[in-house]
TrEMBL record:
Protein name as catalogued: NAD(P)-binding domain-containing protein
Highest rank taxon of the organism: Bacteria
Location of the NADPH-dependent reductive aminase-like C-terminal domain: 160-275
Pfam annotation, one family: NAD_binding_2
Limits of the 6-phosphogluconate dehydrogenase NADP-binding domain: 6-150
Species this chain originates from: Streptomyces polychromogenes
Length: 294
């Protein structure tokens, strides 16, 4: 009932993954470039392969958890992948996911790429809420879903092997924008008679309330209606951005983390004030695709 599998890469994440499969009763073959990292797992029941090729040979399901895409090429160079099911948990870009899928297919393997939305401490702890995005071969995912769900929840996001990485990076990028705003807020009060721990609950509450922006943006980007029901119009927000910048200057704080977004709002307004003054800030998203894409 518990399918056997092979795991290549026993860093912090790989080791956490390995433990959950062993604990759940899956026969597990492991390999790591630095063999010492496999010793503890051997004591817990893992079969340790002497080479990546031997580890791949041992099972059909092959999970990769290496540092980056380049290390995959190094590890699997010349290894026979015919008939294998490759699951790549190594973080990469959408383009790397697509190229790696084509590379696997040429070698006779099925492939899904993945993006792990968890830290090693969240692996094997369902209540921690971590999960993994998967995309690529639907047949592979359906075949191994139960096994893949052992370390963390599994969310399949389509046949395009680039889409797991794209979801992963979209969420991480939004996270850094949030971190940037929070960092600026704390910098503003530094040295004042306001304790960070007193600002903290106010920040959490405000960011929670502003979370409506996620759904609001999705609706407007779908309908292309950027003006209906707007309560905080762009002209007002652009005028108000001066207050944010002057306050930062007055506090001796660099506005570098928030200025790019304020500039984008102004650019949207200036492009056609009559058309955009009554929007909220969602329309500014349409300015961001400046490159040629894929
Ligand atoms: P670690 O740095 O702890 O481990 C890296 C692993 O990659 C090790 O097994 C290392 O082997 C191996 N490796 C690196 N370079 C090569 C190479 N050239 N050839 C062969 N093996 C190589 O990283 P993590 O385990 O934390 O991360 C693994 C993947 O998981 C990464 O893609 C990471 O982005 C992703 N991830 C990690 C998260 C985290 O919080 N840790 C969260 C989400 C995703 P060796 O032991 O010999 O050095």
């Amino acid at each position: 009932r518990h399918r056997p599998l092979t795991l290549l890469g026993l860093g912090d994440m790989g080791t956490a993954l390995a433990r959950t499969w062993l604990a759940a009763g899956h026969p597990l073959t492991v390999w790591n470039r630095t063999p010492a990292k496999a010793e503890a797992l051997a004591a817990e029941g893992a079969a340790v392969a002497g080479s990546a090729a031997a580890a791949v040979c041992a099972n059909t399901l092959i999970v990769l958890c290496l540092l980056d895409d380049a290390s995959i090429a190094t590890v699997l160079d010349g290894v026979d992948l015919t008939g294998k099911d490759l699951v790549n948990l190594t973080t990469g870009t959408p383009a790397e996911g697509r190229a790696r899928a084509a590379w696997a297919e040429e070698r006779g393997a099925r492939f899904v790429d993945a993006g792990i939305m968890a830290t090693p401490a969240m692996i094997g702890v369902p209540e921690a809420g971590g999960y993994v995005f998967y995309s690529g071969s639907r047949a592979l995912f359906d075949t191994h879903r139960t096994t893949l769900e052992v370390p963390a929840g599994a969310r399949y996001v389509g046949t395009d092997p680039g889409h797991a990485a794209l979801h992963d990076v979209a969420l991480l990028s939004a996270m850094y924008g949030l971190f940037a705003g929070i960092s600026h807020a704390y910098a503003l009060i530094e040295g004042e008679d306001i304790a960070p721990k007193d600002l903290a609950p106010l920040l959490s509450e405000w960011l929670g309330a502003m979370g409506f922006f996620v759904g609001n943006a999705a609706e407007r980007l779908t309908s292309r209606d950027f003006t209906s029901g707007v309560v905080s119009n762009l002209a007002m927000q652009v005028a108000g951005s001066g207050t944010l910048l002057r306050t930062a200057a007055g506090q001796g704080v660099s506005a570098e983390l928030i200025e790019p977004y304020l500039n984008l709002m102004r650019e949207r307004l200036d492009a056609d004030p009559a058309a955009h003054a009554g929007e909220d800030t969602v329309g500014a998203i349409t300015l961001l695709r400046r490159g040629s894409g894929r």
